[in-house]
Amino acid sequence: MTESKAKPKARSTSAARKTTRKTATPSRPLKRPAPTTAKKASTGQASGDAASQRIDQRIRELGGWRGETLARMRALIQEAVPEVLEEVKWRGTPVWSLDGILCTGESYTKAVKLTFAQGAKLPDPSGLFNSSLEGNTRRAIDLPEGAKVNARAFKALVKAAVALNAASKKKARPTASKARPVKLLSGGNPQIAKGDGDAPVQAYLAAMPGWKRDVGQRLDALIVRSVPHVRKAVKWNSPLYGTEGGWFLGLHVFARYIKVSFFRGASLRPVPPGPSKDPNTRYLDLHEDDAFDEKQVAAWVKQAAALPGAKL
Length: 312
Fold this sequence. Notes:
Elements: H1 2-24, H2 34-43, E1 46-47, H3 48-62, H4 64-80, E2 85-89, E3 93-97, E4 101-107, E5 112-116, E6 139-143, H5 151-172, E7 195-196, H6 198-207, H7 211-226, E8 231-235, E9 238-243, E10 246-253, E11 257-262, E12 282-287, H8 294-306
Antiparallel strand pairs: 1-2, 2-3, 3-4, 4-5, 5-6, 7-8, 8-9, 9-10, 10-11, 11-12
Helix pairs in contact: 3-4, 4-5, 6-7, 7-8
């Protein structure tokens, strides 16, 4: 009798354990990884327009003298290098790059710090670097409240960083000369894949044959000087230049000349000489022996950039 009573107790204990396991199971989904995910999203990396918006937001969040200082240094960097790439890395730190990192913009309680990735190799005749002076690579500029910066010297420093990155890139790619030559289409116009930004435009200019290469590069530099924040792209094997309002100018190579298209040329003063089937468009044809009136072309470029652009 004693043994028969003991067995039911063992069963009830086992049943109780099973019941306990079943009721404990629903507690597993209570683990919530959401806060970690949200944190990564807010401090993740970004580039291009998304990064620019994040940097805008960072400046607003800082406010006061720190926000003003970061905004002022950002503007100087963009003036020095209009094609600079904006990125966000390392927990929301603004980064400016071109063929590699140029500098970062960090914000601290008592200073805004501009750290140049290869600062130790840059000439600094004005003595802008005042921090991180002990290393062999980086150099930094600490800007406390009320600090004034020599704008011309700072922009020269940024341009020197661009040149250093470009030189380092060439050394790192000794086989670049083996790249396939660009195909020249009818009339010697380079065949370049469609793309946005400065890179495809520079590829087109470098592939322009003979005297046209020098003239094309002079035109490109003139346009950038006249419209510092100009947009660039290559479409239909032609470089295009524009603003947020649309495209205002295009280039195309023909056998004996370069055709400069002003898409709203009829509204320019004086009107560019070349007529077009499109009543809005006017052309400027540049031949090898033509006098290149840079002053007049720059005036046309500035006028054209201020007009509503073409949607191509």
